[in-house]
Amino acid sequence: MPTPAKNEPALDILLADADGGVAFDEKLGNLNALRNAHPDQSPRIDHFLLTHLSKAREGLGEAGEKLDELAGMIEKLTAFPWHIATYAGPVATPGGTRARGLHGTTQRGGGSDDQGSIDQ
Predict the structure, then answer these.
(1) Cβ proximity of 14 and 31 under 8 Å
(2) pLDDT tens for each residue of 47-90
(3) Which of 52, 43, 50 lies closest to 12 in space, CA to CA?
(4) Helix axes of 24-37 and 42-78: crossing angle, nearest 10 degrees
(5) Helix, strand, coil % (nearest 5) of the chain?
(6) Phi, psi of 60 (to 5 degrees)
(7) The whole model's pTM is what?
(8) Nearest to 114 by CA among 79, 90, 86, 88
(9) Which helix (H) or strand (E) holds 93?
(10) How far apart are CA 15 and CA 9, in angstroms?
C-alpha cells in the first residue's frame, strides 16, 4: 500500500476535514490567502492539490475493487449450500431433465442451479 507523501505545514490546512473544525469556505479563504501572499508559489500549490486529488481518486478506485471482492465473498457465503452427493442419473421433471443424486440414504433431484435442466 502506498504511503502518503509528507505535506508541507502551510498546505496541510487545505486538507483538514470539516470534522476538524475547518469549513469549506474557510479552506477557500486559506487557499486564496496563500495564493495572494505567494503568487509565485501558485504552481506548487496546484501541484500539491492535483497530486492529492489523484491519490484520493486512486484510493477510491482501490476501495471500489475491494468492495467488489467483498460482494463476491458475500455472494459465495450466502449462496445455497452444496452437498456431497453421488450422481444417480437423470430424472424427467416439468422443468426439464434434472439430476438425481444420492445424499446419504436420501435421493434428491436437482441441478447446478434452480433455473434450468442439466441438458442446457
Answers:
(1) yes
(2) 989 999 999 999 999 999 999 999 999 998 888 777 777 888 88
(3) 52
(4) 150
(5) 50, 20, 30
(6) -65, -40
(7) 0.54
(8) 79
(9) strand 86-93
(10) 11
Cβ burial, residue 61 (10 Å; 0-12/13-18/19+): exposed
Nearest to 81 by CA among 105, 103, 58: 103
**Tens digit of pLDDT for each residue in 19-36?**
666 788 888 888 898 889
Within 8 A by CB and 6+ apart from 51, the residues are 5
Identify any residues that bridge with 91 across adjacent strands, giving them in sequence order: 98
Answer whether 102's CB lies under 8 Å from 86's CB.
yes
* Long-range contacts of residues 19-28, Cβ cutoff 8 Å, at least 24 apart: none
Least Cα distance to 93 among 70, 119, 73 occurs for 119
Cβ atoms 16, 27 nearer than 8 A: yes
Q: Which three cell numbers stand for residue 51?
A: 497530486
Cell 495572494 locates to: 36
